Amino acid sequence: MLAFAIQFRRDWLCLMRSLDDAVNPLAFLFLATALFAIGLGGQSERFAEMAPGVIWVLVLLANLLSLEGLFRRDFEDGALEQFVLLAQPQFAAVLGKVAVHWCASGLAMTVLAPVAALMLNLPLWVVPKLLLCLLLATPALSLIGAVGAALTLGLRSGGPLLALLVLPLQLPVLVFGVSATLDETAGLDAAAQVYWLAAISVLAVTLAPFAVGAALRLSVEQS
Amino acid sequence: MTPRQLWHRLGSPKWFYHMTGPWGSGFLALALLLLSIGAIWGLAFAPPDYQQGNSFRIIYVHVPAAMLAQSVYLVLGGAGALLLVWRMKMAALVLETMVGFGMWATALALFTGAVWGKPTWGAWWVFDGRTTSTLVLLFLYFGLHALRRAIPDPSAAGRACALLAIVGAINIPIIKYSVNWWTTLHQGATFKLTEAPAMPATMWAPLLVNVLGAYCLFAANLIANLRNAVLRRERSTQWVREMVGLDQPATTR
């Protein structure tokens, strides 16, 4: 717990001192939403049925953009080597690091999602369920993404490779998220999908930090 | 030799190379025999389907390929665990050589599915549960391949791929379940452990022969690939140099 708190505090400070890096993926979320609205012809009546899919795909992509910076700065200035050598439990420290990333990416996107929903004319009564789903699903996105980010750290073809590794593994989140939002729009009960999203996040919290720790050790050893 | 001893010796590249020569050709012969029987039986003698006519016969390629596609990924995940936990050298070679085989099996399953889908479903491609999870499997194979190509140091690449293969293998059931959430158009699995196949024995028996043949082909391919990889990896050791005639055997010197 202490390892988690120390790591969280340290990364939170780093985040606060370089907010620009965290803001850019969020700007992308809105830019891409606007692009979709324009690309689909700009007639807002036609958006409603596509809105859930568009929002969830863009959340996945914006999250992907934010992942590249997750370990890069620490990797470049050598902080990551100290991180790998820590005597404290790696599991908790990794979780602390990813938790800060989630605040800057997943949580921020959840807070801002209603704006994207408005831009795409998603019915207002769907928004609370969409937020709940995003809140439950984005931890899994950050954690699965962290495995990919740790594996591709320091590689020349990092960006496209990261997408290729991470997006297929995040597919279940997309499926359940879109399905929950569509069911809610149609007035059906989406409880099952919500539970599934929560289950995927719990599983990711339990398992992914081990994989992230192992991948970070590999990447640091190579460099 | 107890199974335990056999297991430990399989981890030694030299022993593996000397022992498995006959196994490889044995599996290859068995694979060719089974696949020829299955192909001739399935294509010429099995009765046509009452609805699909002869087009159903692509099942004799499609199902073995799809089964291999999944099994090979699980084998890769298992090899990844062996490599990361027990540092077994041969597991690294399995992971290195069999990604391509799995990729081709997956591509073949998708291709045959598309060819069959056009006359039967009226579309080359439908995003339903089982087709989508196979497509995602193909991307998982691509990821493994691309990650290995991106990391210059072979042993680091091996361990990174091992980690990715384990993460992927844990994810496969979740992916399968999640895409099955959609109402699925694809028929259920032909062979299940819990119940008898829905088709008559004259139709599924050749399929079973082909499935067994495909697994034998996988085994033959695995052994041949491993033997080549062992030679490449151990090329500077005494026993390989002696075997290919670069050095005189130590006893005659």
What attributes characterize this protein structure?
heterodimer; A: mainly alpha; B: 253 residues; mainly alpha
Q: Could you write a compact summary of the structure shown?
A:
The complex is a heterodimer of chains A (223) and B (253). By secondary structure, chain A is an all-alpha fold. Chain A has nine helices and no strands.
Describe the protein's architecture and organization.
The complex is a heterodimer of chains A (about 220) and B (about 250). Chain A is globular and about 55 Å long. Chain A is about 85% helix and about 0% strand. Chain A contains 9 helices and no strands. Chain A has one domain (about 1-220). In chain A, helix 6 (about 90-120) packs across helix 7, helix 7 (about 125-150) packs antiparallel against helix 8 (about 160-185) and helix 7 runs parallel beside helix 9. Chain A is an all-alpha fold and about 220 residues long. The longest helix of chain A is centred in the C-terminal third of the chain and has 32 residues, at about 190-220. Chain A has helices at about 1-15, 20-40, 50-65, 70-75, 80-85, 90-120, 125-150, 160-185, 190-220. Chain B is an all-alpha fold. Chain B has one domain. Chain B is about 75% helix and about 0% strand. Chain B has 9 helices and no strands. In chain B, helix 4 packs across helix 7 (about 155-180) and helix 4 crosses helix 8 (about 200-235). The longest helix of chain B is centred in the N-terminal third of the chain and has 33 residues, at about 15-45. The model of chain B has no long low-confidence stretch (mean pLDDT about 85). At the A-B interface, helix 8 and helix 9 of A face helix 6 and helix 7 of B.
User: What is the tally of helical segments of chain B?
Assistant: 9
Strand content of chain A: under 5%
Would you tell me the structural class of the helices and strands of chain A? mainly alpha
Radius of gyration of chain B: 21 Å
Count of the separate structural domains of chain A: 1
Q: Outline the biggest β-sheet of chain B.
A: none
What is the percent of helical residues of chain A?
over 70%
Query: Roughly what is the average pLDDT of chain A, rounded to an integer?
Result: 88
Q: How many structural units, i.e. domains of chain B?
A: 1
Structural class of chain B: mainly alpha
User: Count the helices of chain A. How many?
Assistant: 9
Shape of chain A: globular
Helix coverage percent of chain B: over 70%
